[in-house]
Amino acid sequence: MRIVDIFKSKQGEGIWTGEESAFIRVVGCNLRCVFCDTQYASWRPEEGEDLTIEEVAGRILLLDCKHVVLTGGEPMLYSEMIPLTRLLKEMNYILTIETSGTLELPVVCDLMSISPKLSNSTPKDASPSLVRFHETNRARPDIIRHLIRLYNYQIKFVIDEPEDLLEAEEFLAMFEEIDPKRVLFMPLATDVSAMWSKAEWIVSFCRNRGYQYCPRKQLEWYGNRRRT
Fold this sequence. Notes:
Layout: E1 2-10, E2 20-26, E3 49-50, H1 53-63, E4 67-71, H2 81-90, E5 94-99, E6 111-114, H3 128-137, H4 141-150, E7 153-159, H5 162-172, E8 183-187, H6 192-209, E9 212-213, H7 217-222
């Protein structure tokens, strides 16, 4: 499996915000989100190394964390995730998998963190073929339904404009089984001032609907830096 980063930090997003965690970032993604903040690990990979699951587990062991986050790119691209997650669970780690919810594997995890992509993710200035590719693949309600049935989950939406909130609700309407308290709305931002400027109306919407506001605490703690 091709890995671009293994590092120690604090989880900045979601229900386990603040937990000291080891992060495993794989290379490769099946989507082309215009706001991707890890293009070096997704659809424009220029680095990374091929590691066995034993090598990955050995590096995680050195970081001395209870939580492990598998992210990318898109972790579900790799069949090696199946034996890797099983090995890490045998080592008593608490596992989060960060995924777009467009692919699935029979992995083991304690939290499936699903980030469905709204239309604000589509690279509208890209070639028509790339736009079609992304639009065709960005939403898989059937896979999301399967994942939330099998795993403890959270659903995270990236919000840029107020109309994104309504689009997210339209998407959620397909899932009667989703608990609103497990739905998180996160501002699209690369700096703290942009995050705070959107927070007011996102927080108000969440309070009125019973959802959760999800700040990107890593921006506050570290700024917009890699390996955080």
